[in-house]
Design brief:
alpha/beta, Rossmann fold, six-stranded mixed beta sheet, five-stranded antiparallel beta sheet, disordered N terminus, disordered C terminus, binds adenosine-5'-triphosphate, nucleotide-binding, ABC_transporter-like_CS, ABC_transporter_ATP-bind, transport, ATP-binding
Amino acid sequence: MLSIAPVSSVADPTPKPPTAAEVHIVGRGISVDFAHDGVVQRVLAGIDITVGRGSFVSLIGPSGCGKSTLLKVMAGLLTPSEGTISVGGLAPGEAAKRHMIGLVFQEATLLPWKTALENAAFLLTVGGRATPKDVALDKAMAMLRLVKLEAAANKLPSQLSGGMRQRVAIARALALDPEVLLMDEPFGALDAITREEMSRGLLDIWERTGKTIVLVTHSIDEAVFLSRDVHVMATNPARIIETLPIALPAHRDEETFDLPAFAQAESRLRHLLIQSHAVQPIGASSVGSSAAGMQPRAGERR
Ligand SMILES: Nc1ncnc2c1ncn2[C@@H]1O[C@H](COP(=O)(O)OP(=O)(O)OP(=O)(O)O)[C@@H](O)[C@H]1O
């Protein structure tokens, strides 16, 4: 069994690529319906997904197909209408309560009046399991170091670039020392080069900490470079049409982009994506009716 490195060990200079021997996230037959103006729309249909502990997987598919919805199910923010999901053997809501899940979204959503350090410490200082402030700030500083942002610890979000703000958001999620990091297009708003730098930084963090990472991305390059498996989704309703294992060396760096295997994986993924765009909807997406307005039947938590 792969043990999760404690916060104090993140400075280990020898990266150890994690293995995916143990199952960490298991979803079976996950469907999600949303109700809108009396019509029920099935957004996810019977999704089966398995993510190994310490693995790095991506979800990719047409815009609006349901990638974020699946991530919300994994995060415990949304209860599926049908099917089961567990994270580390627990219901995701329970796993989230126990700080086992960290979330990073496309927008960093930092508190503008708090410094980078205070923002990174924020989640540790709220809720039922609040950490004493000095301990929280120490942990947050260690995470800012990990994302190479310690020099900006005392800056306000308005004094940081988009990439730096996103690094604070990653540090904030990591400060909880979650087992699982769920990331929804975290680099979507950044320029290509910053995006590549952030990707390499994320891989470094993954290698050092052994977290299980699930990434939603629209970028073929990013999915191939970062992932061990890429789940390709089709739309209306969303289902996984293929899981593509990425046959690249465990340790990846700039030179990985030049490998023939990289180009092959990229080409295969591009073809799968074209296929996923062409997949016909399963019948009508409306599977019933409801008197409710725009609300998830599945019981969305915010
Ligand atoms: N709370 C909600 N109520 C009703 N419909 C919703 C809700 N959340 C998402 N949807 C619908 O579910 C579908 C999937 O949305 P989702 O955000 O999961 O897609 P996505 O693949 O992440 O999209 P993108 O790639 O554009 O970010 C869309 O049709 C969206 O309109």
